Amino acid sequence: MARAPDKASDSIALPRPGQPGPFEGYQLGRPFDEMFDAKGDPRPGWAGLYNRLTQASPQSLRDLQANIDRTFMAQGVTFTVYGHEDATEKIIPTDILPRIVPAADWERLERGFKQRLEALNLFLADIYGDQAIINNGYIPRDLILGSPNYRREMLGVEVPHGAYVNICGTDVIRREDGAYVVLEDNLRVPSGVSYMLSNRDAVKRAFPELYRAARVRPVESYPDDLLAMLKSLASEYQPDPTVVVLTPGVFNSAYFEHAFLARLMGAPLVEGRDLAVHDNVVYMRTTSGLKRVDVIYRRVDDAFVDPLAFRPDSTLGVAGLMNAYRAGNVVIANAPGAGVADDKAVYAYTPQIIRHYLDQDPIIDIVETYLCREKSQLSHVLANLDQLVVKAVGESGGYGMLIGPHATKAQLAEFADKLKADPDNYIAQPTISLSTSPTYIDGAVEARHVDLRPFILCGARMTLTPGALTRVALRKGSLVVNSSQGGGSKDTWVLSGPSDGRAKS
Fold first, then answer.
1. Per the CB 3.0–4.6 Å rule, which of 203, 209, 344, 483 could disulfide with 491?
2. Where are the transmembrane segments (predicted)?
3. Rounded to two decimals, what is the model's pTM?
């Protein structure tokens, strides 16, 4: 049924989800839908995309999606699935339809992300310094000092600008009521920004007129912003510091991103064997001899960066790197040991951390979290396992997770045994039905669950890129958005001001 036009729609009548056209099978239900309100009307900012899709022929949409797939194949926009039998390297599935974030939503998110990262950096400075938050009993001592991500080698180390976390990717979702909540922080070696940039390049080519009319904020300056931030970490006496990107090598799941960012920054991409430490100074081997390195953007996990300090069997790092770092002769971004602050158990304390260090209430809430290390909370989790999401504290990428409502009786029993055997290693959260966004699936537009990963840079100053990686669960009904678990990605259009996203006729 068509309706009369109003200020939020174009001059044409807009058919609703469920009517003939690309939205014929689109289902509006309990989850918050990014495009449609409860009546089935496009939300502010979405009308232009909606009208573009309803006017498009099925073949034109198939052609646009095929063009993106071919482009990504030619550019090698890939990720690696460890343990996959048929092929480890895969093209990341990318949806042609962007996710749109109104300016007002983004303004609040930006304030919330900056508040959160400021508090987490203060927290890291404290636990590697005076440890007041531990000594005063605000956080259990064993939770911090017993964490596998706590690095005693960082005790007393001063980091430039107090920024232990220089590149942050915080995942947020929307509850059924539309409120944004933080799902987790990624503070070690956060990935995905290359997909954000690649998606933008592809999707704005697919919808050039719509992109211009919607007043989408650009993200293309991210590599320059990243390089400027990394250089700001170097000693002031270095007028033109040398920055390198340290990668584990071509077999790493995010190698495409390592090479992509190094190329766009104009920075050397190096492996551990390309670097050497002499007299606590790091050098890069070049065809013209050794060249001093001032800043290392490392994409190697803590445990592997220095075999003399951490895992002695590591061949990915640089022997003596931590001594050079502690001596102040090189900067490592992100700082080793930052991962203790994105521990899934520490996550439960982040509202208290914000209040403790900033004397402010959190701008963005977190998901209610049960700590299985607490006996009373463990009992609650075991009694309600079929209704909760259970996560291993040290895992990422969708591994080590149980989604209770979708689990079999055998899986529930298996996880119950794991919780009883090692409760400290698990947290649990209520099952939140992530918001849905229109996604092009096999010739039709269907609702699929999504999350949002913006990227924050923190050096001499803190900046938030006005865009993000939207991850999408491509399997119908799935809540798992990780690419390693069958998810894909979308471009994210952050609007620059009041706009209904309509293309001009």
1. 203
2. none
3. 0.91
